[in-house]
Design goal:
- The complex is a heterodimer of chains A (435) and B (513).
- With 435 residues, chain A is of the alpha/beta class.
- Chain A has 11 helices and 17 strands.
- In chain A, strand 4 and strand 5 form a beta hairpin.
- In chain A, helix 1 packs parallel to helix 9.
- Chain A is globular and about 75 Å long.
- Chain B is of the alpha+beta class and 513 residues long.
- Chain B is built from 14 helices and 23 strands.
- In chain B, the strands form 5 sheets. In chain B, strands 5, 6, 7, 14, 15, 16, 17, 18 and 19 form a 9-stranded mixed sheet that branches.
- The termini of chain B are far apart.
- Classes of the chains: A alpha/beta (435), B alpha+beta (513).
- At the A-B interface, strand 5, helix 5 and helix 10 of A face helix 7, helix 12, helix 13 and helix 14 of B.
Chain lengths: 435, 513
């Protein structure tokens, strides 16, 4: 017989993507005893940029400069969009709380107050987003003012061509130059993780500085692919900047990228110190609700069986990549509780003929229906479980990919779900016991 | 000598003529195998499939199949084939099958049901009859590359991205053919003694340029590619040809098909969800695992059938070829060859070349039935597994892998780019994909396309937004094949792809907005 352990908690957060991480953070900050389960794999695919809202309506491909005006417009025209259930003030508070925590873990972000920032991507396109890692911010201002700038790339680092960025943007940013250099001490194929680790060593940094100094010329800013260390990003950046003498910045690389890894590391560092019990990389084999509305979950790993008794749960399992949703040839399922999934009538309606169709694919709007407390609903419109909440991309009516609202929505709905749980709990405590 | 259309027939004709000392220019609207030659099963028929419906085609397949195995072995996997009937299939058809094969000279070997299951364990236990035949798998892309390469070796020219837009006809002859470069829009013209139309499904359109009406039937056939190879041999359902009854190995994958859907226009044809589900359910009756296996791509081709007889069922229309001498239509130096099948492409080319030689008074014999098709570097990279083998052998740590699913390193890409240049082509993602395994693995191009684009910019082969435009074109083309297969793992990959291409890179947005 394998060993068995039972863990009691007030709240179980299911999912370890952006929404799950944020929910666990918010719960811990509110002194809720919290257990988090999930596989922090999806977050590795995060771009590291925190989008709030960039495009609406998607079929018109309208891009917004002010994300708050965009959110207000979404709330007016899409009453079922998760943002429509949250006030602007609450979204701002949620973001602040999350960014403060990331900063405490050495991953500071920067943003304009009421303005989206534009970030140059490795394809040479411009990505509109809200909060940007500090290590990328100088790139935002260099592009905004079209400053004379040099972007350096490395011999052997595939998928990142400074020349591509320059060539695509040559008419819009004529003062951008590029150079390809050999990374100190590295030969053959380069991996961003290894380069990032290497740059945490001052000696390697200094050699890189010596390599790029003669190339600067008139440049007022210097960009690199995102490799400024893994754990000591700000130190690496400060070290480079001091010796180079002009602002330096990272250009995001394609996922899975260091920027996603840093987010994962930051959360994995913060949450246990706040008292969250994290049980990653285990498979949830059973979820049962008791009559009282409490949950019993079973987790399996190689050594023992874990039973988690939770008073409430937040489902933040994500969509298909996160495996919160799964599809067979006929329909889309929710994988933990088999909750009803709002979805197009049949598979022919899931995707459009063209991948890049501006209207987006209807399958991306499928998901859980929730009420104003972010409680998943049955088809009859009642909460499916008394103490179950949902947050993040599993919610319906939000095409996060096309609207550019992934992280913002994850953080804001996680915040709203945790607060709704607290409020419900406190209300019940105030209610006199019946029966 | 001008040949319009670089499918297997046009490519084969260019080679046949060049070996008889007649140099040609082979023009193609897109790139080679853009139509039926690139949208088929890759099946080298033993002929057995046609013994009931079309014995003439069956005999031709038998002869040509044997000949190609001898002369172009590098394009062929001699997998062998099985014909199997399952419970509920027409028992008379199964019973007559060996005799009808014998009548066409096609060898069959009856196989005990238990033995058939031992040979191919994926077969349903509900088998009632099984026969071995000499079916094989053939790589139509490699085939065309090698035919074009050999024709070029003998002085012929290949011009991809050249659309024939107009014929000047004087004195019952095509005097000048006006071409347009479909990439640059540049116009040019060619004077030719003889013009041959090998445009496959588009043959009617090309004939139209000469004012000739050629009635074509377009029969769409859709096929599915599995993520891994399902069976060793070609497996055919032993029944009247119908949907989803052939599974053909293609190196590391298997190809299941096909449907036969009459369509009216060639503008937008693609596999549909309804076809996919039908193919899977039919295929699963023969090979149950086909119901659960992972498919990575669907594609459709058009069978160009010349409307000689009217029939409600296109499977009944002859799969034989049509060689049309347009002298009877009043244009003396114009010929159309269409219809037919992949297996008989060489024969079609031979017969056409015979006619042309006859007209030109050339009496040299056909050499494609005796001379082996040479293997060239250009044709190597369509073969699954070759790129990684070469890469492992060379052990050059600087030779970075750019397509991780199919393990295509930089050096292979360089070699492909060189061969595209030699063929007057433009080294785009699409052109590279056609000549290699790029984008054919489980990621369906989501990752490798961006890596290769960056590489092409580095090499100075792309400027300004060209690469972004090509990336979109390439991804949209892959999408057509992904869309009907979106459930399970491919759906997860598609979401990841969209998160990257649209979520991060914003490819769907207007960059100037």
């Amino acid at each position: 017989m394998p060993q068995s352990e039972t863990i009691h908690c007030q709240l179980l957060v299911i999912g370890a993507g952006m929404a799950g991480m944020a929910a666990a953070l918010f719960a811990a900050n509110r002194n809720i005893s919290t257990v988090q389960v999930g596989i922090p794999g999806e977050i590795l695919y995060a771009s590291g940029l925190i989008d709030l809202l960039g495009v609406h309506p998607i079929e018109k491909r309208r891009q917004w400069r002010n994300p708050w005006s965009a959110i207000a417009a979404v709330s007016r025209s899409l009453p079922n969009h998760p943002y429509a259930r949250i006030s602007e003030k609450a979204i701002r508070r949620a973001l602040d709380e999350c960014l403060t925590a990331l900063k405490s873990a050495g991953l500071p972000y920067r943003h304009y107050k009421d303005r989206n920032a534009d970030v140059v991507t490795p394809a040479g396109s411009i990505k509109r987003t809200y909060a940007v890692p500090d290590s990328m911010w100088n790139g935002v201002t260099a592009w905004r003012h079209k400053r004379p700038c040099l972007i350096v790339d490395f011999d052997g680092l595939k998928g990142f061509s400074a020349r591509q960025i320059q060539s695509v943007l040559r008419d819009k940013w004529p003062a951008l130059r590029t150079a390809r250099v050999v990374f100190p001490n590295q030969h053959a194929e380069l991996y961003p993780e290894r380069l990032a680790q290497a740059l945490e060593l001052p000696a390697i940094r200094n050699r890189l500085v010596a390599t790029v100094l003669p190339l600067l010329k008139d440049a007022k800013a210097l960009g690199f692919p995102a490799i400024f260390g893994i754990y000591q990003t700000m130190e690496v950046m400060a070290g480079l900047q001091k010796n180079i003498g002009i602002p330096v910045f990272e250009v995001p690389t394609l996922p899975p990228a260091i920027a996603g890894l840093r987010l994962k590391n930051a959360f994995e560092q913060i949450l246990p110190t706040l008292g969250v019990r994290t049980l990653y990389h285990r498979i949830l084999t059973r979820a049962k609700a008791s009559k009282k509305g409490h949950f019993s979950f079973k987790l399996a790993d190689n050594q023992k069986v874990l039973v988690i008794e939770a008073q409430a749960a937040i489902l933040a399992t994500g969509r298909f990549i996160g495996q919160g949703l799964a599809a067979d040839r006929n329909r889309i399922h929710e994988t933990v509780f088999d909750l009803p999934v709002s979805q197009p009538e049949d598979r022919t309606q899931w995707h459009r003929e063209s991948l890049l169709d501006p209207a987006g694919h209807d399958i991306n709007k499928a998901g859980l229906e929730v009420d104003d407390n972010f409680q998943p609903l049955t088809t009859a419109g009642r909460p499916a479980h008394k103490n179950l909440y949902a947050a993040g991309s599993i919610l319906s009516h939000a095409d996060w990919i096309r609207m550019k609202c992934g992280s913002g929505l994850a953080i804001a709905t996680a915040h709203a779900a945790v607060n709704a749980y607290l409020e419900n709990r406190n209300q019940r405590r105030r209610e006199p016991l019946t029966g | 000598m001008l040949i319009i259309g670089a499918g297997v027939t046009g490519s084969g004709l260019a080679r046949d003529l060049s070996l008889r000392g007649i140099q040609s220019i082979l023009v193609e609207r897109r790139d080679f195998n853009a139509g039926a030659s690139g949208g088929n099963h890759g099946l080298l028929h033993s002929g057995a499939r046609y013994v009931v419906s079309d014995p003439q085609a069956a005999k031709e397949c038998r002869k040509e199949g044997a000949l190609l195995k001898r002369l172009a072995p590098h394009c062929i996997e001699k997998s062998g084939g099985l014909f199997v009937a399952v419970e509920g299939d027409d028992e008379n058809y199964a019973a007559d099958f060996p005799h009808l094969c014998a009548k066409c000279g096609i060898q069959t070997e009856v196989v005990d049901v238990r033995e058939a299951l031992a040979l191919e364990p994926v077969l349903t236990p509900r088998l009632i009859a099984a026969y071995k035949v000499a079916d094989a798998a053939i790589d139509p892309f490699k085939l065309s590359i090698e035919n074009i390469a050999d024709a070029q070796q003998h002085g012929s020219t290949f011009l991809p991205h050249s659309l024939a837009v107009r014929f000047d006809i004087r004195n019952r002859k095509i005097e000048t053919v006006h071409l347009m470069d479909t990439l640059s829009g540049r116009k040019s013209d060619i004077t030719a003694d003889q013009v041959v139309n090998t445009a496959g499904p588009w043959a009617g359109k090309v004939a139209g340029l000469a004012g000739i009406r050629l009635e074509m039937i377009y029969s769409k056939g859709s096929l599915l590619v599995t993520q891994s190879r399902i069976a060793t041999r070609v497996i055919n359902r032993l029944r009247h040809p119908a949907d989803g009854d052939i599974l053909v190995p293609g190196g590391t994958v298997s190809v299941l098909g096909t449907t036969s859907v009459r369509i009216e226009s060639l503008d937008r044809y693609r596999p549909t969800i309804e076809e996919v589900d039908r193919i899977i359910s039919e295929g699963a009756a023969m090979i149950p695992v086909l119901d659960k296996t992972c498919y990575i791509r669907a594609y459709a081709g058009i069978r160009p059938l010349v409307n000689i007889q009217s029939s409600d069922n296109d499977r009944g229309v002859s799969r034989g070829y049509a060689l049309i001498d347009h002298a009877t239509d009043g244009v003396e130096n114009f010929t159309t060859i269409t219809g037919g099948k992949l297996t008989t492409f060489r024969l079609m080319a031979e017969k056409t070349a015979d006619l042309i030689c006859d007209r030109l008074g050339v009496s040299r014999p056909c050499r494609t039935k005796t001379d082996p098709l040479p293997e060239t570097t250009a044709g190597r990279w369509t073969v699954p597994g070759l790129a990684p083998r070469v890469w492992f052998k060379n052990r050059d740590s600087k030779d970075i892998i750019l397509c991780e699913c199919e393990m295509i390193p930089k050096s292979v890409l360089d070699s492909i780019i060189d061969s595209i240049r030699e063929q007057h082509g433009h080294p785009s993602l699409t052109a590279i994909g056609l000549r290699s395994r790029l984008g054919k693995g489980p990621c369906q191009g989501a990752f490798c396309s961006t890596l290769v684009t960056a590489y092409l910019y580095d090499q100075g082969m792309l400027q300004a937004t060209e690469g972004i435009d090509e990336l979109k074109t390439f991804l949209e083309a892959r999408w057509r094949g992904q869309k009907p297969l979106m459930w399970g793992a491919p759906l997860i990959r598609a979401e990841l792809q969209e998160a990257m291409q649209c979520g991060v890179l914003g490819l769907e947005l207007d960059p100037d907005a």
